[in-house]
Amino acid sequence: MTADALHPVTGLDDVVHQRVRLGILTIAHEACRVEFGYLRTQLQLTAGNLSQHLGVLETAGLVALEKGYEGKRGRTWITLTPAGTHALAAEISRLKQLIARVTLDDQP
Amino acid sequence: MTADSVHAGGDPRRLLSQVHALSRRVRADRRVTWVALLVLAVATFVAIPVDWFGMQVDCAAGGACRFNRLGSLYFWPPALLLSYTVIAVAYRRVARSRGVDARVLPYAITGAALTGVFTAAWVGARIYVANHPPAPDAPPTADWILLLDRLVAPAGTIGVALLVLARLERNLALLAFTLAYLAIVLIPITFGWQMHTSVQAEFLPSQVISGVVLALGAAGFALARRRQR
Question: Which residue intervals define the domain Winged helix DNA-binding in the entry (chain A) (predicted)?
Fold first, then answer.
């Protein structure tokens, strides 16, 4: 059995295939650099919950966190690493394959 | 509030639609289209008196006039460079205040490069005309040359740079606006408004119309943005 013959679900990355983390990667990819507060608002998460997910992604090397100040206010900026960009592209590709597979399976 | 507030489940269709929805939202939050159009509209309006008073006109007894738009030449290159700098800075500031980063540098670089093309074309045409003065009975200039002339003129280069911005922002509304703007500038469309009182006045309708179109575009995009919020 070749890799192409494997079901797309076998290639899913548990770190990325989670709706919140996929959302973080998507936003970070589209925004180039995204602020913690923006992510929190868009994904409707608590600060603690978002921090946990960011920790997972940072440990996996998919995002880089940069802490700084704007005036007196502390701000955290999140950037996608090249590995993160690759992981996001792979996840989206697998999701599309899965949808195509499911659509084919649904046909009589 | 927990992670569960983002409902997509493990369903690939829902996950993918979440990805697309988030991408669209971020793209919308990064756009400050009205700022770009407003800055360019202001530059266009300021250029009108500069062109009018900076134009050298030499009319012969027979009524034929030669003109030299020196005001435009000296005004537009620095004005365009300043405009693209202001736009890039404004984009960056506004986008950052919203919590995202702007992707506007390629637009500013394209605009600056086109400004160089405009200046080079203007200087090149001036040198050519100085060495090959048109004969009094010369046929009228070909349409494609006039079209090319308008394309490399400031109003045309503004439109071409806006096409780049529309591509960067994946902004269909800006693309449609820019195509309409380019049609107005390149054909050119003056909605029947013509002035033949002086050489300076000949250029006025198209200048005013391109400025008004940019200003209306800025107002339209600003209103659309306010409605989105």
Answer: 20-99
Q: How far is B89 from chain A (nearest CA, A)?
A: 16
Helix/strand/coil (H/E/C) assignment for every residue in B68-91: EEHHHHHHHHHHHHHHHHHHHHHH
Label residue A39 by pLDDT band (50, 70, 90).
very high
Cβ-Cβ contacts under 8 Å for B81 (sequence gap 6 or more): B112, B115
Average pLDDT of chain B to the nearest whole number: 86
Are the C-beta atoms of A79 and A33 separated by less than 8 Å?
yes
Record: contact B101-A42, CB cut-off 8 A: no
Q: Which helix (H) or strand (E) holds B158?
A: helix B154-169
Q: For B137-186, what is each residue's pLDDT tens digit? A: 777 778 888 888 888 888 999 999 899 889 988 899 999 999 999 999 99
Confirm or reject CATH 3.40.50.12780 for domain A12-100, answering yes or no.
no
B6 touching A (Cβ < 8 Å): yes
Name the band, by pLDDT with cuts 50, 70 and 90, for residue B36. Answer: very high
ipTM exceeding 0.85, yes/no: no
A11 pLDDT exceeds 80?
no
HSE-CB of A65 using CA atoms within 13 angstroms: 18
What are the residue ranges spanned by the domains of chain B? 31-228
Distance CA B33, CA B166 (A): 9
- CA atoms of B16 and A96, how far apart (whole Å): 8
**Tokens 């802490």 sit on residue:** A67
Domain segments of chain A as ranges: 12-100
The pLDDT of residue B177: 97
What's the gap in Å between the CA of B180 and the closest CA on chain A?
28
